[in-house]
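Re-run requested by the PI after the first attempt was lost when the workstation crashed. Everything re-entered from the original request form. Ligand of interest: guanine.
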Amino acid sequence: MTAHLIDGKRIAASLLADIKERVDERERQGLRRPSLAVILIGDDPASAIYVRNKTEACQRVGITSVPHIMKTAPSEAELLTLVSQLNEDANIDGILLQLPLPPPLRPEPFIEQILPSKDVDGFHPYNMGRLAVRRPALRPCTPAGVMTLLRHTGIELLGRHAVIVGASNHVGRPMGLELLLAGCTVTTCHRFTKDLRAYVEHADILVAAAGKPRLIPGDWIKEGAVVIDIGMNRLPDGHLAGDVDFKEAQKRAAWITPVPGGVGPMTVATLLANTMEAASARVPA
Ligand code: GUN
C-alpha cells in the first residue's frame, strides 16, 4: 500500500479563497476589512518566519494585519497594557501573540488578558473550555486545521481509535478535545507514557505532535491508518522533518500528511478563518 497524500497546501489555499470571498462580500456591504493585530517579541528566527507567513496570508485574502514588532522585550506591565489597548480598539478584530515569548516572560498572563472574542489563536481558557464542553467558539488553529484535513479524506471518524502523541496546551490537548467531539475514542500519549509503540500500533488515526524528529518509526503504523504529522523539526542540515518516519509510514498508512505542506498551511488558514469569524461576530465598526 502507498498512502494517499493529504495536501494541506491545496486545502489551505481553497480555505483562503473562501475567506477572500467573505472579505470581499463584507466590503460590498460597506464594512471595513477584518483586522488582525500581530505581536512579535524578540528575535526567534522560526517565529519571524511564522509571522511573515501569517502576514502574507492576510494580504492575500484582504485582512488588514497590524504589526507590533518588538526586538527587545517589554515589561510584563507594558505588554499587558498593549493587549488591553488592542482589546478596546474597535478597529481590531483579532489579536495574535506569537509564541514563544523570550524569557522571563511567560505566556499565560497575556493569553488570559486577550478578550476571548478576539482570541483568534483559541488559546484563552474560555475558548479551550468551550471546546471541552462541546460548544466550541474560537477553536485552537492547529487542531481545527487537522479536523479540516481529516474531513477532506472522507474517512468515518465516529468510533475510530485516535491516538495523539503529545499533550501540549495549544496542540495535543485541544486535539484530543476536537477528536472526542468528532466521536473518536481518544488516547493521549505524552513524555511519561510507557511503551508508546503499544498505543501507536492500535491507532486508526495517529496525530503526532511531540516535536521530536522521526520519533515514530514507520513499522509502528497500523495498516490503513490515517497519519497526521504536526511535527516541524529543523534538522542540523537545515531540512524539516516531521515526528513520523514518513518514507516507511507511507508504505502502511492509507492517508498521510507531508512535512512541510501538510498541517502547517492549515494552521495559518484557520487563524484567518478565526479572524473572519471574530470580525463577523462583532458589531460592525
Ligand atoms: N508559535 C508557534 N505556533 C504558534 C501559533 O499557532 N500561535 C502562536 N500565537 N504562536 C505560535
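Saved to the shared folder this time. The chain has a mean pLDDT of 97.
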